[in-house]
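FW: tagging you since you asked about this chain on Friday. Here's the raw sequence from the shared folder, copied in full. Didn't touch anything.
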Amino acid sequence: MTGHSICNSSPLTSRSRQLANYVPPRVWPIIYLNAGFSLRKQSRLEPKCVLTSVILLDSCLQASAQEHRLPINVGIYEPSPKNQNKVMNSLVWINEEGQLEHRYRKLHLFDVDIPGGPILKESNSVEKGTGIVPPFSTPVGNVGLLICFDLRFPEPSIALRHQGAHIITYPSAFTVGTGKAHWSALLRARAIESQSYVIAAAQVGSHNEKRASYGHSMIVSPWGDIMAELGGEKKDEPEVAVGEIDLESIEKIRKEMPLLRRTDVYPEI
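HL: got it, structure written out here
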């Protein structure tokens, strides 16, 4: 079985609509958008940002998914149920009916304080998630949801693989410095060790005078091959990457390269 995944940096632009309209028969398109797409231009999170995110989810994204009969995977900010001064960094799955079916909340928060360098404290405004969402069935395979800084931790992707994931998503906004050093290596490592497709829609360009994102949205195969990669410079029209998901190739790789863990020596993930 095959399908197509579309990485995009803006909700249902004319180019992504055109792609969706021209995919071959019996191929299922899915739009993957980057995390917090409407909000990260802000230097900090404000109440109006969260309100904008929730409104966009309801009036724009869910309506667009229903109108175009396309599942959408997108990151948003939501009010924290525990702390009124914080939000949740959430990744949601909207089905082709426009219904919000699945929600994952980011486990690992990005807290960096480099002497003489950048200070980024996600935990000042974001409440950390408390669990992994089990992979869920889609026409292109079982999808597991993770976000950005989760990429630096192999345990969640391995856990999702053991729960049956075929595809793992990492919508992200990596800094330029860490992106140049680690982005590609980490995405390929997560794909290889989980023997799953990795889809990472990434923000690109300057958010403000102090912050810019690396970009380079990427689709990686279970063998670690980079199937598609977008650029690292912000453009007037968002770029789109398309990749084919082949479930038979996943089974072949997992059968021919079995990863038999020594759980008698170290704990099961």
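FW: The chain has a mean pLDDT of 84.
HL: agreed, and DSSP finds five helices and 17 strands in the chain.
FW: great, closing this out.
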